[in-house]
Amino acid sequence: MGLRTMKWDEWIELDNHYSKYHSDKAARIAERGHKCCKTAPEAFDGAVELLEEFCDYLPQRYPSLYMRTSTGMHNRLTKETFDVTARPLAEDPMAMAARMVQDDLAIMFEKPDGQYYLLAGAILLPGFWRLEDKFGMPLSEIHTSGDVPQFKEKLEKGMLNFFKRIKPDAPVLRNNYFIQVDDKLPWSESIGDEDSDGVGWFSAEKNKAVRHHFFRTERQSLRRLPRSGGVVFTIRTYFHPIVEIAEEPYVPGRLADAVRSWGDDVARYKGRERYEETLLAYLDRKHREQVEQGLVVEKEDDVRSYPF
User: Cβ(215)–Cβ(171) under 8 Å?
Assistant: First the structure.
C-alpha cells in the first residue's frame, strides 16, 4: 500500500491553486452534485463528524483563511459561512465538507460482517472513476470492480487488516500517480463521456502530442474518526503538464524508468499503450538534454525531493 506516517499538521494541504479547485468543485456540485456527493443515512453522523473536525482543524492550521464561528466556520477568501449545527443541514454534509478543502473525500464504515463500505463521499475531481459506480460497495469490491492490478493476490488481506487496526491518533499517507492525455482536472474526457455506460482507455486517442500529456498524482490520507469510527480518506490531486515537470532535474529519466517498469497488468490499468510512444520519446530526449547540461545521474538520491 506504500503507507507512511502522517504528521497532524500535514492532514490538509492548500496551495496557490486553491481558488481554481474551489470553483471547479462548486461548479461540479451545482451541475452534478447528486451524482458526486452522497451520504447514506447510517453515515450521516460520521459525515457531520468530519465537518466538525474541519471546523476545528482548518482555522488552527490556516488562520488567515478560515475563522471558527459558534456554529461552524467562515472562509475569509470565498466569503462562505458554514453552519454545521443546523438541522437539516443546508446541503449534503459531504458536499459541504468538499467546499472547505481542495481534496476529494470518502468515508468507509464497518458493518456487522466485518467489511468496510463506502457510505459517504464527495468525489468531484476524480479523473477516472465515478462515486455513483462505487457507492455502497465494500472495500474489496471497489478494487476488484475497478480491476486494480494484483489486488486479490497482494493487497486485499493487508488492506482489510489495516482498516481494522487504524487509530484516530495514527493517520497515514500514501501516493499514486497516472498519466492523463487531456487537461481536464475533474474528469478525463479522453476516456469517454462521464455519463456514458462504458468508459476506458480504449477510447483515448493514441499518442497525442506531448503538450496534451499531464502528470496526475493523488496524495491520500487515511485516519479513523474518533466518534463514529469511520475511516476517512482525503484525496488531494496534483495535476501538472508533463512539459512542466520535465524541466525538474532528474524527473524525465525517473518517470521514463517508472513507466517502463510497469508490468502488463499495471500498464493496461494505466493505459500505457495509448501514450507510451510519444511520452517516452519526449522523456528520453529531456533526460539526455539534462545529462548533456551537466546532470550527474549518480547524485540523484542526494537531491531527490517531494513531490517529484
Answer: no
- CA-nearest of 68, 71, 50 to 60 is 68
User: Quick check: 105 and 232 in contact, CB under 8 A?
Assistant: yes
User: CA dihedral in degrees (143, 145, 148, 154; nearest 10)?
Assistant: 60
Q: Are 23 and 102 in contact (CB under 8 A)?
A: no
Using DSSP's 3-state secondary structure scheme, residue 104 falls into strand
Quick one: which of 72, 75, 18, 29 has its CA closest to 50? 72
**pLDDT tens digits, the chain, 308 residues: what are they?**
689 999 999 999 999 999 999 999 999 999 999 999 999 999 999 999 999 999 999 999 999 999 999 999 999 999 999 999 999 999 999 999 999 999 999 999 999 999 999 999 999 999 999 999 999 999 988 877 777 776 677 667 778 888 999 999 999 999 999 999 999 999 999 999 999 988 899 999 999 999 999 999 999 999 999 999 999 999 999 999 999 999 999 999 999 999 999 999 999 999 999 999 999 999 999 999 999 999 998 888 777 654 44
Question: What would the grid cell of residue 170 be?
Answer: 495514527
Predicted structure pTM score: 0.93
Helix, strand, coil fractions of the chain, as percent rounded to 5: 45, 20, 35
Backbone angles phi, psi at 169, to 5 degrees: -95, 15
For the chain, where are the alpha helices, taking DSSP H only?
Answer: 18-36, 44-61, 93-100, 131-134, 139-145, 156-165, 242-245, 251-261, 264-269, 276-292, 300-303
